What does this fold into?
Amino acid sequence: MELLPKSHEEFSCKSYWEEFFRKRGGKAFEWYGEYTDLCDLLHKYIKPTDRVLIVGCGNSRLGEHLYDAGMHSIASIDISSTVIQQMAQRNSISRPDMTFTCMDATAMSFDSASFSVIIDKGTTDALTPNSEEATLSSLSRLYDGMIRVLRLGGRILCVTLAQEHVIHAMLSNFQTSGWVIRVHPTAQSSESPLPVFLIVATKFSPTINSVYESFTISGSCRRLDSVDSFRNSISATQEYSILLHRLRSSLPTELSLTLHSIDSPLPRYSLHVVDTPAARRPFAVFIVPHGREPEWLFATPSGRKQLAESADYRRLVVVSLSRSHEYDGLSAVQSELSGRVMELALSSDGPRTPFLSVGESLGRRNVLHRGRSDVSGEYVVEDVELEEETFRRLIFLNNPNVVQSESKLVKRKRKKKSPILDVDRGFLACEHHRSMCAALALVTGRPVRVLLVGLGGGGLASFLSERPAVRLDCVEWDPEMVDVATRWFRVSDTARIHVADGIGFIAGRRPDSYDVVLVDADSKDAALGMSCPPSGFVAPAFLASLRDSLSDDGVFVLNLVCRNEALRASVLADISGFFTVWSHRIPEQINTVLFAFKTKQSKSPRIIKPAVDSDLSFLNSINILDRLNDFTLVQ
It folds into this structure.
């Protein structure tokens, strides 16, 4: 199209605009929307008694509409003499009080404090095609001039796309105190992925601190604590607008986003949008109850894909709740979400939103404790009610959909007192823990001398502590987790807990110190491709010292979590250099439990297992010994 510039820099060139308006003639050109898109917001900040200046007016009809709405004191300026002549002729009879002046907005000659409202509809954007020094200098002259001619209590109304470099340059001109700066998203055409904003800067005495506020399209306001938060609120709106534009057609892969309440910076809802084009029904929202979000069906893309396919909806939005917020029940959540989630529907979907969930309740979540570990970061201990049972969980917030440790709570009777919820030491939540514990039946010594490396929240340690047939040592290098395990998961004081590095601890043990060594330690090195254990626990030097620390019929038991198949094969080969290794891949999980025997062991654990004596009968109580049938020899 001939009217478009060859480069963005031409937008700030006088000759370009002269040619633009000469070719366009009298046909109005509206930057960033028609008057009807902006009038509701503009009229909040303009009164009939205001003296209004429009900088870079072009041939927009904005000033004419404002005049017809009762704002008769309007002065318009533009750098193009062609358009000023056109506008003056067009309005000379019907709007005699409007004035049009050919003037460079970066060198205005008006008296100081001449105007109570200044409107900039696209001029800031046109003058800021880049972040070069000459561009920023020109923009500074524009804002110096606008600030100078604006009265105390007056408003600068800037209609802008608020691109990152533009908003950064604009806000740098309000560094002095005494400004209330607001941002409003405007109503806009659904055809454009880029939102248009109205930024309102109100001039007050420099003796007061500047204030930053962000508004939603519905008019709700949030006070922001810094200019960085102000910029972030704009970028969040832009990202959401682009996302909505993408959602108007079917998605090849899952798309995720978060929704925030106006009064909190923390996400209130986490949403995953899953499309199944072959499904029959159009659109639904699935609300995940409290405590169910770590389950595979809701926590993983493949699980959510299966959920969408089984629900038979072309688009399913899976919604998880935040442990940082409170909710008034399932119906209240549905009501809160109903308006916003319809924005996520495919354009062909109907107006009604079916809400789905598990049962008829949101469930209950009670956050008991929040803390921070120098090793693992922020964490929470929480109780969740699931299907009339209560579970206590440790969650690391850097991976909030993974349960680090879990124990079931049961009611304990007390003499002349009400029952209390207490940790059930006969419960093991993790499938891999059950398989690991089966190794206790494979050794002959009593009591079984067990070393657990990696205490975590203490779920496994709590199960093994206070067993007469078990003498338990635990090694944990994070003192914060020791406090969590003893305080919240009630690991018995019969377990001897050592705050130490597991590798160094084992290297310092005498020969024949343990019958079973359980290693269930996670790795903090995400780049390794093996999340459990840390690489040092499969290094030859460690394996040699570990072998020495075991009794003659001792077993090294490892929880191996490795997605890299080549690395997994290498780890198995290294361990096989010191032990006879049997393995069991936990169904539907990535955990593999290894039994590494000190002596050569070619018989399956299910064949060599002895009759379990009464001291180890607790292994039978939850079918732990059945796991021995699942191990195969690593060749």
